[in-house]
Write a structure and sequence with these properties.
With 470 residues, the protein is an alpha/beta fold. It is 31% helix and 26% strand. It contains 13 helices and 22 strands. Strands 1, 2, 3, 4, 5, 6 and 17 form a 7-stranded mixed sheet that branches. Strand 9, helix 6 and strand 10 form a beta-alpha-beta unit. Helix 3 packs parallel to helix 6. The longest helix is centred in the N-terminal third of the chain and has 25 residues. Bound molecules: flavin-adenine dinucleotide.
């Protein structure tokens, strides 16, 4: 005899989509359960994604600064050395603190955490199998699938968990690789490549396209980042692909083919394959109850996140859209509000995208290329951190800001930053765009001096060629 519990909403997956949605639904008075098969709450983001990668990026940046930068500030650090186990322990501690935080939040908001693997029995019933093999059934009128994503595998380079790895293993190497080859020049590859480069590895990035961070990032911004990373020691093989890879005598031997079809060999002790992620819904039984998927394995939803099966919803990485924690969170909140009879909504026009290299890249809205492709008349204003007082004080002058505004209305269409703390500076641009600001609005907003966001204001002024750099 299996117990059946009843809830208003049951969410499968406790990543940023699932746990944030669960808390919002509970705040709105719904009886909520959240099922998670991993031992810790928080999903990819907290356990093997955003948080551990940023913890290592921050630690490795301190190490690199102490070795290469502090002396220029008059801070002499002799004998700086790496304690990798301590760095990893600290990262694990950050992760543990945050995942434990969700346990407390669930308690506070009376969200029932159901540990185990969820599988649909029917559109209103889930069977949950705990680690010890015990089963329970839960029934509800609303099931939210928030099962996330997993790394894409290259058939020519299957993961072995040791030499050929995904981001998960690259977050916890026990020693610094001598030569790390990163396949894929996107955010995850460049971030983890930065970590290991700063800690002493030689890092080569192989990217199929002729540029880094393809997608929504403005090409000029991506080229500026590439120059900065090259100065730091990155090697890039752009417009090239890995056609073969094999582990021989403890090292990986890769065959690389460039755009002209020329083949060459590259040897590495570790290879990180970071060519993207794909939606994950394995073992959930969603197909079996008739839920429709697209040709990329993503669950198809309408603009209220409902699948073709009434009462079954999906959010986050498992549906279309950028695979970002904050996008998943916003969808979780919007859906919880819709289920509580409110007007939940996500503004997909203003999703910031950030690459936490140094300098950082942060972008929101249309790039120049996208504006041209859509034949939208636009004006662009740029400003270089070289002329920003705070960046000079920090000795971090690499990079620029670009503001793109509609040529007729002056409404801001996109903002692109490569530079120090771009991840923080972009927040102002996102807010401005959310409120439909014009470049003039941004230009007339007083900014504290000297600050990095002044560069954003100057770029906005420069839309009408009014900045000091014009
Ligand atoms: C290395 C790395 C760095 C990243 N850095 C960033 C970043 O800086 N910023 C950013 O915005 N995004 C980043 N991301 C992406 C971000 O982690 C994801 O976009 C985000 O986690 C998606 O949230 P989600 O809730 O949709 O799914 P997930 O976080 O993947 O959570 C899904 C959860 O569902 C659980 N689950 C799946 N199936 C079942 C089942 N049948 N039963 C029970 N539980 C199940 C899984 O165990 C998992 O915990 C990064 C990703 C990686 C890999």
């Amino acid at each position: 005899m299996v117990d059946t519990q009843q809830f208003d909403v049951v969410i499968v997956g406790a990543g940023p989509g699932g746990y944030v949605g669960a808390i919002r639904a509970a705040q709105l008075g719904l009886k909520v359960a959240c099922v998670e098969k991993m031992p810790a709450l928080g999903g990819t983001c907290l356990n093997i994604g955003c948080i551990p990668s940023k913890a290592l990026l921050d630690s490795s940046e301190w190490f690199s600064q102490a070795r290469h930068k502090f002396a220029s500030h008059g801070v002499v650090c002799d004998g700086v050395r790496l304690d990798l186990p301590a760095m990893m322990r600290r990262k694990d501690e950050v992760v543990r603190g945050l995942t434990q935080g969700i346990v407390s939040l669930f308690k506070k908001h009376q969200v029932t955490h159901l540990p185990g693997h969820a599988r649909f029995r029917d559109a209103k019933t889930l069977e949950i199998t705990a680690e010890n093999g015990s089963h329970q059934l839960v029934q509800t009128n609303a099931i939210i699938v928030a099962t996330g994503s997993e790394p894409i595998t290259l058939p020519s380079l299957p993961f072995d968990g040791e030499r050929i790895v995904s981001s998960t293993e690259a977050l916890c190497f026990s020693e610094v690789p001598q030569h790390l080859v990163v396949v894929g020049g996107g955010a995850i590859g460049l971030e983890l490549g930065s970590v290991w480069l700063r800690l002493g590895a030689k890092v080569t990035v192989v990217e199929l396209l002729p540029r880094l961070i393809p997608g929504t990032t403005d090409a000029q911004i991506a080229a500026t980042l590439q120059r900065s990373l090259k100065k730091q020691g990155f090697d890039f093989l752009l417009g090239s692909k890995v056609t073969q890879g094999a582990v021989r005598n403890g090292e990986v031997v890769l065959t690389i083919e460039d755009g002209k079809g020329q083949q060459s060999e590259l040897k590495a002790d570790r290879v990180l394959v970071a060519v993207g992620r794909k939606a994950y819904a394995a073992g959930l039984g969603a197909q079996e109850i008739g839920v429709a998927f697209d040709d990329r394995g993503r669950i198809i939803v309408d603009n209220h996140f409902q699948t073709n099966v009434p009462g079954v919803y999906a959010i986050g990485d498992v549906i279309a859209g950028p695979m970002l924690a904050h996008k998943a969170e916003e969808e979780g909140v919007a859906l919880a509000e819709l289920l509580a009879g409110k007007a939940g909504h996500v503004n997909y026009e203003v999703i910031p995208g950030i690459v936490y290299t140094w300098p950082e890249v942060a972008t929101v809205g249309l790039s120049e290329e996208a504006a041209k492709a859509a034949e939208i008349p636009y004006k662009a204003g740029t400003f270089y951190f070289l002329a920003n007082g705070r960046a000079r004080c920090m000795d971090e002058t690499d990079g620029m800001v670009k503001v793109i505004a509609d040529a007729k209305t002056d409404r801001v269409l996109g903002v692109h930053i490569v530079g120090p703390r771009a991840s923080d500076v972009i927040a102002e641009a996102v807010m401005a765009m959310e409120f439909g600001a014009s470049a003039e609005d941004m230009a007339r907003t007083m900014h504290g001096h000297p600050t990095l966001p002044e560069a954003l204001r100057e770029a906005a002024l420069n839309v009408d060629k009014r900045s000091r750099q014009s």
